[in-house]
């Protein structure tokens, strides 16, 4: 009983942290527990019963297999346990969510004992997580005349697993809790620096917001035991930033309902709200858990007697309160009238939170059950040779006669499955689509694995062209946490059918490449749909959606995703860039000019940005599409010229071939298949058979933004504005300032060049600038540390071949060594150049950070409070985001440069240039 004794020891250690026993996923441990349950005189028997009944993870975990097997033995009378009757054993099986439990239930339902078969059938009628092998067993039994199989299939055809669920309550009483003022980042709900604990739900729950906030939530629950606590982003958007299932899990853990009495720390039905609504990615995750997300609109722009917006001395709109949601306010959500009330006073229409589809998610306890339920109903009806009755709300299908299609409408129509209408569909239509590429990253991957186990999935859907499991978020430090978690994750995903960054067999060199760069390389069709476990899944080929770990799991298991076709905003360019400007400045200027053109309204939020970039290859264009996460867009699509797209596909082919040469392809030759697809796509473009994706000339957009390059006269910096008197305007990514704003004297404590926002050209710019500075000044001397993390090993290899890496080595004081990776996070930095291992590094903030209170100048994506740098007692930490040349010069000077210093430093350097296409990029 060694494993059991170790488990008891772990329980004692967790008690010291205020934690309960960790849920069991090991079959070996559970078998030791079962052995002690069988021994009626065992001193540990009572504890073992509790562990077996209430603390074993369901789905396809090894422990679930052992539990299902023992329950089967009890039902068949092969084992007798006084505390677990056969009836109770069936109840336990009903809560195990597929996999081994379904196999056992089918064994019993299709067996020879009529009474047992009937009981098993009744449980099976409540289950939805059946896969092809399970359905095949039912089909064969039905075709062989099995009456029980017919009974089960008839129930499935009526979707009784859904129709017999309790209806959604007409009134839901909530008590409000203001989680923060301004945008609420998922970092507040699930901090990046606690990523290692996400798969341990109870432990990770302790990091949500603050201990004080947790106590306040508990006090509200004690005061209002009959009400749910609704977390609110006052004057902001809830759930901006990363796509974290762990964030919603934490909210559900503190404020939701327990999904099953036999599964600990898995809660559902969280309720969240935001003055400006819920971030699209976060709202999808709320749907996954059967929760409710509400756009409160409780603050609006103040207007004068003429209807004009009233502005403050800085030109910012002044807000006025429509109604209060202060902490402790009791509100009523009416799901029938779809209104929000305070007592008898109607506050706002919340119909968008209770569409027919969302009501189904709430009733079923989450969107997974609906997806699997629809497939199961369709299978059963087809097997029985009948038409499936209309149970689920029909998908909304919108067709507007005479209106053309945007790029995303074209992609969704091409990939749609199960549509009723034979006409093309426009924005607002609810569509199931096939998914071509899926990405899982390493700090959410363990949760994705748990989700796959919980939905009883064992192998990747054959519909998916390719899927990749990264190692980039844990690349900086190979510490004990990473060593404990990552190999296990890579083994699971490799077995499931993904291409993995680390080889479980140890044959090929570990690849810690940034996931978004790899996904951008392995996307070889601009008509593709990509789902990835990170908000920066924003490929510059195809349309890519950042998603929570559960949606990623669903895409891997089924090869499908469901969502409305989003509206699009068209972005085009005019004018020309000065020679001393970098494309990163165009990206920031796009956001600034858009906000200016629309009076401060972010027309990008929740929509597709269709950017007519034309002339930039996928590597360079990704700098734009990547930043669309910070623009709060749902996704983005690049419209390219034919030759540009061909060049991008050739680059992708070369990099995929390198992955094959390293030994990363699997037995299904997935990577070689991508090269074949790329060759086919190139041939189609060159022959004129199928040119590069274009929207129709008569497509309809929510808005159109024209970016004037002539207006961009100096580098543009995204500023967290940490001292803004209006707290809601801090850390928003919307404050874009010209370099001259800082007067050439703002102290910079550290520079960072890396993350998914940079490409090979940025590394070459760095090398060229260092050579220039040495030529001008006689030496290169840093007055602030400069941390450099190339996005991928491919880029490092290309830089070595082209001589640039040697230049960087010359000026560096530290260079990563894969043979001796760092085991401890760096806490102090010297004024020198650090060449770090490819990966996310400081951008993620989960392993290493700048010193507290530092002012950081970075090329990365995130400026949220505490992400890259935390506050000190004396000063707020701040991460300003800019182009590579600005970062380099800021670390050489130890301050922001003047515009004159900047222009001199970039003389003769090949910056990332952009010239708008002169072609009309429409179909």
Tell me the structural class. alpha/beta
Number of strands: 33
Output the radius of gyration: 28 Å
End-to-end C-alpha gap? 69 Å
Give start-end ranges of low-pLDDT stretches: none
Q: In terms of quaternary structure, what is this?
A: single chain
**Percent of residues in β-strands:** 15-25%
Number of helices: 31
Globular, elongated, flat, extended or rod-shaped: what is the shape?
globular
Largest sheet: 7 strands, mixed
Mean of residue pLDDT values: 94
Main sheet: strand order:
8-7-3-1-11-12-13
The residue fraction in helices comes out at 25-40%
List the helices and strands and how they pair.
Blueprint (H helix, E strand, L loop, with lengths): L1 H15 L10 H12 L6 H10 L7 H14 L10 H9 L5 H10 L4 H11 L7 H12 L3 H11 L2 H4 L7 E11 L2 E2 H4 L11 H5 L5 H13 L4 E7 L3 E3 L4 H11 L1 E4 L2 E6 L2 E4 L5 H9 L3 E4 L3 E3 L17 E3 L8 E5 L4 E4 L2 E5 L6 H9 L2 H18 L22 H9 E2 L12 E5 L2 E4 L1 H13 L11 E4 L10 H17 L2 E2 L14 H8 L6 E4 L10 E4 L2 H10 L1 E5 L3 E7 L8 H15 L10 E7 L3 H10 L7 E6 L1 H20 L8 H18 L15 E6 L7 E3 L17 E3 L11 E5 L5 H18 L8 E4 L3 H10 L1 H8 E4 L17 E3 L19 E4 L19 E4 L2 H10 L5 H7 L18
Parallel strand pairs: 1-3, 2-4, 3-7, 7-8, 16-17, 16-19, 17-18, 19-20, 22-23, 22-25, 23-24, 28-29, 28-32, 29-31, 30-31, 32-33
Antiparallel strand pairs: 1-11, 5-6, 9-10, 11-12, 12-13, 14-15, 15-21, 26-27
Helix pairs in contact: 2-3, 2-4, 4-5, 4-6, 5-7, 6-7, 7-9, 8-9, 9-17, 16-17, 19-20, 19-22, 23-24, 25-26, 27-29, 27-30
């Amino acid at each position: 009983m060694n494993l059991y004794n170790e488990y008891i020891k772990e329980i004692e250690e967790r008690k010291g942290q205020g934690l309960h026993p960790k849920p069991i996923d090991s079959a070996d441990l559970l078998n030791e527990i079962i052995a002690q349950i069988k021994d009626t005189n065992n001193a540990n028997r009572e504890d073992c019963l509790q562990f077996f009944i209430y603390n074993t993870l369901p789905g396809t975990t090894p422990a679930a297999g052992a539990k299902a097997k023992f329950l089967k033995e009890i039902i068949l009378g092969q084992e007798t346990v006084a505390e677990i009757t056969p009836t109770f054993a069936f109840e336990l099986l009903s809560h195990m969510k597929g996999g081994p439990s379904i196999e056992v239930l089918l064994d019993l339902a299709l067996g020879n004992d009529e009474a047992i078969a009937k009981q098993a059938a009744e449980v099976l009628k409540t289950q939805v997580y059946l896969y092809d092998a399970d359905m095949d067993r039912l089909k064969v039994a039905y075709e062989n005349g099995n009456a029980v199989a017919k009974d089960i299939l008839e129930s499935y055809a009526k979707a009784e697993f859904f129709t017999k669920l309790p209806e959604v309550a007409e009134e839901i009483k909530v008590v409000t809790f203001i989680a923060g003022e301004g945008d609420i980042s998922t970092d507040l709900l699930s901090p990046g620096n606690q990523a290692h604990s996400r798969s341990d739900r109870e432990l990770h729950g302790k990091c949500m917001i603050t201990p004080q906030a947790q106590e306040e939530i508990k006090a509200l629950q004690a005061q209002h035991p009959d009400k749910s606590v609704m977390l609110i982003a006052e004057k902001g958007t809830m759930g901006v930033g990363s796509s974290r299932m762990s964030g919603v899990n934490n909210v559900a853990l503190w404020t939701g309902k327990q999904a099953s009495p036999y599964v600990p720390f898995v809660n559902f039905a969280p309720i969240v709200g935001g003055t400006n609504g819920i971030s699209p990615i976060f709202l999808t995750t709320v749907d996954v858990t059967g929760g409710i997300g509400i756009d409160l609109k409780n603050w609006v722009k103040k207007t004068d007697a003429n209807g004009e917006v009233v502005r403050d001395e800085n030109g910012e709109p002044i807000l006025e309160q429509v109604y209060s949601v202060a902490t402790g306010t009791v509100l009523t959500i009416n799901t029938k009238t779809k209104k929000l009330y305070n007592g008898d006073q109607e506050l706002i229409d919340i119909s968008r939170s209770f569409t027919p589809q969302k009501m189904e998610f709430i009733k079923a306890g989450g969107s997974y059950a609906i997806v699997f339920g629809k497939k199961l109903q369709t299978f059963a009806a087809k097997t029985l040779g009948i038409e499936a009755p209309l149970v689920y709300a029909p998908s909304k299908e919108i067709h507007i006669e005479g209106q053309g299609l945007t790029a995303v409408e074209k992609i969704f129509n091409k990939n749609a499955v199960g549509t009723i209408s034979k006409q093309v569909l426009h924005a607002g239509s609810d569509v199931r689509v096939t998914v071509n590429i899926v990405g899982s990253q390493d700090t959410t991957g363990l949760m994705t694995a748990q989700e796959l186990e919980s939905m009883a999935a064992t192998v990747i859907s054959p519909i998916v062209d390719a899927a990749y499991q990264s190692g980039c978020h844990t690349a900086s430090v190979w510490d004990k946490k990473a060593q404990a978690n990552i190999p296990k994750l890579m083994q699971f995903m490799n077995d499931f059918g993904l291409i993995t960054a680390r080889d479980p067999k140890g044959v090929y060199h570990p690849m810690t490449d940034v996931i978004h760069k790899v996904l951008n390389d392995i996307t070889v069709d601009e008509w593709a749909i990509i789902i990835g476990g990170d908000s920066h899944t924003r490929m510059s080929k195809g349309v890519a959606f950042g998603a929570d770990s559960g949606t990623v799991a669903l895409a891997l298991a089924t090869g499908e995703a469901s969502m409305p076709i989003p509206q699009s905003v068209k972005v085009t360019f005019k004018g020309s860039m000065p020679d001393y400007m970098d494309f990163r400045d165009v990206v920031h200027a796009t956001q600034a000019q858009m906000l200016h053109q629309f009076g401060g309204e972010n027309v990008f939020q929740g929509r597709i940005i269709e950017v007519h970039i034309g002339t930039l290859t996928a590597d360079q264009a990704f700098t734009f599409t990547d930043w669309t996460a910070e623009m709060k867009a749902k996704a983005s699509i690049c419209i390219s010229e034919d030759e540009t797209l061909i060049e991008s596909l050739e680059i992708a082919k070369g990099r995929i071939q390198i992955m094959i040469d390293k030994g990363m392809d699997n037995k299904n030759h997935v990577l070689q298949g991508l090269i074949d697809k790329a060759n086919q796509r190139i041939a189609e473009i060159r022959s004129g058979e199928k040119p590069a994706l274009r929207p129709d000339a008569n497509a309809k957009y929510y808005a159109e933004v024209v970016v004037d390059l002539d207006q961009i006269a100096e580098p543009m910096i995204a500023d967290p504005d940490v001292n803004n008197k209006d707290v809601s305007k801090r850390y928003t990514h919307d404050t874009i300032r010209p370099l001259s704003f800082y007067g050439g004297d703002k102290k910079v404590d550290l520079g960072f060049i890396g993350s998914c926002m940079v490409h090979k050209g940025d590394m070459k710019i760095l090398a060229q600038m260092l050579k220039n500075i040495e030529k001008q000044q006689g030496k290169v001397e840093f007055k602030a540390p400069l941390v450099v993390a190339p996005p991928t090993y491919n880029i490092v290899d290309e830089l070595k071949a082209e001589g640039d890496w040697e230049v960087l080595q010359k000026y560096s004081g530290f260079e990563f060594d894969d043979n001796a990776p760092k085991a401890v996070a760096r806490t102090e930095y010297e004024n020198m150049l650090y060449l770090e291992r490819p990966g996310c590094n400081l951008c993620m903030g989960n392993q290493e950070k700048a010193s507290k209170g530092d002012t950081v100048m970075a090329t990365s994506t995130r400026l949220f409070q505490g992400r890259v740098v935390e506050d000190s007692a004396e000063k707020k930490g701040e991460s300003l985001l800019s182009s590579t040349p600005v970062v380099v010069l800021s670390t050489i000077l130890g301050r922001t440069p003047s515009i004159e210093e900047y222009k001199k430093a970039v003389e003769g350097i090949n910056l990332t240039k952009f010239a708008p296409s002169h072609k009309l990029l429409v179909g």
